[in-house]
Amino acid sequence: MLRGDGRNEGLVERYLERLEREIGETAERYPGPLETIYLGGGTPSALRDGELARVVSAVDSAWGFPATLETTLEADPLTFDAARLHSFKELGFSRLSIGLQSTQDHVLKRLGRQHDARDGLEAVTWALEAGFEASADLITAVPEQDTERDLRTLAKTGVPHVSVYTLTIEPFTPFARRGVKVDEERAADDYELTNAVLTEYGLERYEVSSHARPGHESRHNQVYWHGRHFLGLGPSAAGFLPRPGLPGARVTNPPIKGWLRRETPLLEPVSPADYLLERLMTGLRTVAGVDLADVHSRSGIDIEERFAGTLAPLYRHDLLEVDSGRLRATPDGLIRLDAVLREFFAFKPSHCPGSPRGDADQG
After folding, report:
1. Quick check: 73 pLDDT over 70?
2. What rounded mean pLDDT belongs to the chain?
3. Of 29, 200, 314, 358, which residue is the least packed, with the fewest Cβ within 10 Å?
4. CA angle at residue 45 from 55 to 20, to 5 degrees?
5. Closest CA to 149 of 107, 210, 87, 91
6. Which has the closest alpha carbon to 213: 155, 126, 166?
């Protein structure tokens, strides 16, 4: 979305008008109600109250608002205070996903964030005091970071959901140009430390990067992880829609300039084999694992039959297990998940489908 700093008022208005039209047109093809709504993909909380109300009104007219199960707003700590949270609540949002990233000023500065530790922790506290179902994210494996301090400081706020991501360095980014590298051994240590510390505070890992108290798991993100259909609206947004004869089709909107010009979204039919691999890639990230019968019914492929030769050594080395009809990664398997998944993708080396991204939480 559009940040509040350096606003281009004309662009904001064009953005809102285009989004309102897209919502209306999409609802004609895919009527509601919606089980979950996640307003994110940037900083939607940077919109002014009246602008945010326009988006909510458009969704309400199309499908109803709030959603029947969970309605989330992604929020930057510098875009709200205790008073503004009342407006978010009145609009119908019940959950806030807060982009914290660290509780240490020098780490936030290194990550290029504008807020400081006090700003971030205040934002989490305000959200909890206002009665929101709140989630906050941290990034680990950052040079000179005290990871345990970050974890304990955030957990002590009482936040019921924490998403923890390992720092990644993308090509051509400022980090890459400065030669910053991620220490893989440090990243693995931080992964284990995260689980140990957050478990002390009652936050159980239910997905590789997601930890929650029982009953506080993100419902929206589980739509992605377990292969359900979903809509994606706005520039560069991706959706997974029903398609006759196939598990579905991936639909990706163009970036903002093309989206404003109403350019045609990219449509990629998802074959049964691609769907199978995507379900393995996302489902094995979760403690619940992959429902074997559900994948069979949606793809027509029996995972245990198709990958019998791959599964045998993974079972033998205690990296995967089957329990109550679900294929799951063991604790050791979650730590070595990239290596486990490579064994499945070796069956199809020419194509490795991407997973929908939740960034901070995404839920």
Report:
1. yes
2. 92
3. 29
4. 15
5. 107
6. 155
